[in-house]
Amino acid sequence: MLLQEDWAQLDELTRELHEIESGGEFEDFVLGPVTRFIGARFASWNLHDPGMVMLEVVNSPEFDNRVKPLVESLNRTLPTHPLFGRCVDFETGQVRRFGGIERTLDFITPEEYHQSPFYQEVGSKLGIEDQLVMQIIVEEGNGIMLVFHSDRPFSELECLKASIVRAHLVAKYHAMQNRYNALFREAEAVSARLRRQLTGREFETLEWICQGMSNAEISTRMGVSTRTVDKFVSAVLTKLGIDCRTRVIARYAPWLTIPELLGGGNIAHSHARRLRV
């Protein structure tokens, strides 16, 4: 059972979690405060796509600093790892659904783990004596999985902490996903309304305006003269009933950029898009 000080830390984590507004903050939270609360040394955050193929692996700074020199060994030995073989089909790259929390030493003895290629080539050099994998979500082909690494076997208390924290993370993820979906639907409605009001070229001009481009820059992008762009801009302002482009940007830029930022209304997609930039 959790000790009194553990509950106090959990309450603080929960308060911090409720204040998170973006996917990036969520990711930083699980790689920092959550990792420390569970008792891990470092962690990685993995995303997989609708085909269940791994998209990205984002590491906590300490993990990244330690693992970079061993990436080749890591990639070669992970398929032999007893826990990761349960989580990922290394022949197809697909991620498997499991119960939520899995721990390496639940499937192999410490002696067997120490004899594994992963430990001999990677774990021994990084001081990894146990791993705990936490599946946050596998839904509609998208997934998020956290991997925590420790320099000693995870205790029952730490596994309990991970299970409790996972419930909070999953709830927060769903709340954020619902909010993202609502924003995405509203942005699509605004875009559809604008497309009905404006011609195709006028709508394209509006998109460039909302990216802060001058008429000269827009003319280059659209392959037309600056004078033609002047006419497009004038038509946009007239049809929208706005007297200057600054107000156009303030009113419409957020809605026209939301679909791109949210990656189609999905947090996992938005992470992958952001991380590839």
UniProtKB/TrEMBL annotation:
GO function term, MF aspect, one: DNA binding
Gene Ontology biological-process annotations: regulation of DNA-templated transcription
UniProt cross-references to CDD domains, sorted A to Z: LuxR_C_like
Keyword line: DNA-binding, Transcription, Transcription regulation
Domain HTH luxR-type: 191-257
InterPro entries: Sig_transdc_resp-reg_C-effctor, Tscrpt_reg_LuxR_C, WH-like_DNA-bd_sf
Lineage: superkingdom: Bacteria
Matching SUPFAM superfamilies: C-terminal effector domain of the bipartite response regulators (SSF46894)
PANTHER family according to UniProt: DNA-BINDING TRANSCRIPTIONAL ACTIVATOR DEVR_DOSR (PTHR44688:SF16)
UniProt protein name: Helix-turn-helix transcriptional regulator
Source organism of the structure: Ruficoccus amylovorans
